[in-house]
Specification:
single chain, alpha+beta, five-stranded antiparallel beta sheet
Length: about 475
């Protein structure tokens, strides 16, 4: 049978109490028995003269009286060991009407000296129940005859029997009281565990926001509560992350399908036009072939971008070699000035800033940020690019002075396929993967990217990357 924790604790406490009471009671019983018998032995040794005088020996002077109990027997033995004189105590050694006598051994011990009794020992009485404490000695006043003195242990037996009854009653009371008190204490002590079990059931039912109590560092149960709450927080975070990941995946698939549907529809339409006879019209045939090629390139770029994001999310390693951000930024500014010659595009990169990374991907990061500033700001808006070092890291920023971003868009701007302006054209705004690629590439390089409002209006994208520890 399997006992509960409460049952095992209660059984353990009661067992310990029983063992302790048993040891204590045995020690008290044995100690009291020894004390009482030692006192009887001392009285027997002290009453040697009184006993000899009571049996008829000549007096040697004043006799010290000893309070022998009723039933004490004194005998003078003959040479054959038979009693010559027997005296019993009723009030003094004056009675011979004894109902129980000690069973005297045939071979008595000898102290080897006159008037010196041997060490007392215990013998049975003639009734088979009463015990006597017996000693003997050679009495010089009787010419060396042996005197036997036997003191009944009836009072001692009665006292010890009463002690056993008292010990039994007291022990029973102690055990019952201990069991009740232990039960109450165990119930109170296990109450937090029961509460934890109830909360665990609610958590198992799906309520991951619940926490167990108590949760403190002062008690073992409290420390268990702390550990469980920490574990529950991690589980809740893991479930939330999984839910968010699944939501992002579903949205990514939906957005990707939506983005691919438009070029696929165009390719299908122009292919249908060619099939129906556009070849008879050179202008229509040229338009159809050009649009099919453009939409195919667009789809290839979109697929390549999605594949890059997926690989970076999986932790695929990138090439790592010393790369100068100053050179990359200078090339990006030159490209932007060719695309938008009417803009004021400036570069602030006075020093060489070397990081460890993939040159192609880092160029893609800077290019996407600059293109984002060119596409989403008026054509006359100035764009500023800066490269510097700060606190042991490389800092790259792309600043524009356009309309800026709403506060709610700043947290979502790096999500795949996200568009701040949902009405803008895909031809001008792209598929919404540029900033997602920026975030994925920067994260893969051990850095971080953030966006903030430009002083005076506009948006500032800041990239932070660890400096290179290698030399090219």
């Amino acid at each position: 049978m399997t006992l509960s924790l409460r049952g095992r604790l209660l059984l353990g406490v009661i067992s310990l109490v029983l063992i302790g009471l048993l040891v204590l009671n045995v020690a008290i019983y044995v100690s009291l028995q020894k004390f009482l018998i030692d006192r009887v032995d001392a009285e027997m040794r002290a009453g040697v003269d009184e006993v000899a005088t009571a049996l008829g020996a000549p007096s040697r002077g004043p006799v010290q009286r000893t309070a022998f109990p009723i039933g004490t027997v004194a005998e003078v033995l003959g040479s054959d060991g038979s009693p010559v004189t027997i005296r019993g105590v009723s009030s003094g050694f004056g009675s011979q009407a004894l109902t129980v006598l000690p069973v005297v051994p045939k071979n008595l011990q000898d102290s080897g000296q006159l008037d010196v009794p041997v060490q007392p020992f215990t013998v049975q009485g003639t009734d088979g129940t009463t015990e006597f404490r017996l000693t003997d000695w050679h009495e010089g006043r009787f010419g060396g005859a042996i005197i036997v003195l036997a003191v009944p242990l009836t009072d001692i037996t009665s006292t010890l029997r009463g002690l056993l009854v008292s010990q039994a009653l007291i022990s029973a009371g102690v055990v019952v009281g201990t069991a009740v008190l232990a039960f109450v204490i165990i119930q109170l002590g296990l109450r937090p565990l029961r509460r934890m079990g109830a909360v665990a059931g609610e958590i198992a039912a799906g309520d991951y926001s619940r926490r167990v109590e108590p949760a403190g560092s002062k008690t073992e149960i409290g420390r268990l509560g702390l550990a469980l709450n920490a574990m529950l927080a991690q589980i809740e975070a893991a479930f939330a992350e999984r839910t968010a990941s699944e939501r992002r995946l579903r949205r990514f698939i939906a957005d990707a399908s939506h983005e691919l549907r438009t070029p696929l529809t165009s390719v299908r339409g122009y292919s249908e036009m060619l099939r129906r006879g556009a070849s008879e019209s050179p202008a229509d045939a040229e338009l159809a072939r050009r649009r099919i090629e453009e939409e195919s390139v667009r789809m290839s770029t979109l697929v390549d971008d999605m594949l890059l994001i997926a690989r970076l999310d999986q932790g695929r390693p990138l090439e790592s070699k010393p790369v100068d951000l100053q050179v990359i930024a200078r090339d990006a500014v030159a490209d932007a000035r060719v695309v938008a010659p009417q803009r004021d595009i400036t570069l602030n990169a006075p020093d060489t800033v070397v990081v460890s990374g993939d040159d192609t991907r880092l160029r893609q990061v800077v290019g996407n940020l600059v293109r984002n500033a060119l596409v989403h700001t008026p054509s006359t808006t100035a764009v500023e690019i800066a490269v510097a070092t700060q606190n042991g890291t490389a800092q790259l920023s792309v600043t524009d002075h356009g309309p800026g971003l709403p506060a709610g868009d700043r947290e979502k701007i790096f999500e795949p396929f996200y568009r701040s302006d949902v009405s803008r054209s895909r031809d001008s705004g792209g598929a919404g993967l540029g900033l997602s690629i920026v975030s994925a590439v920067v994260t893969a390089h051990g850095g971080r990217v953030k966006v903030k409002e430009t002083s005076g209006g506009g948006a500032t994208f800041e990239v932070e990357l660890p400096l290179s520890t290698k030399t090219s």
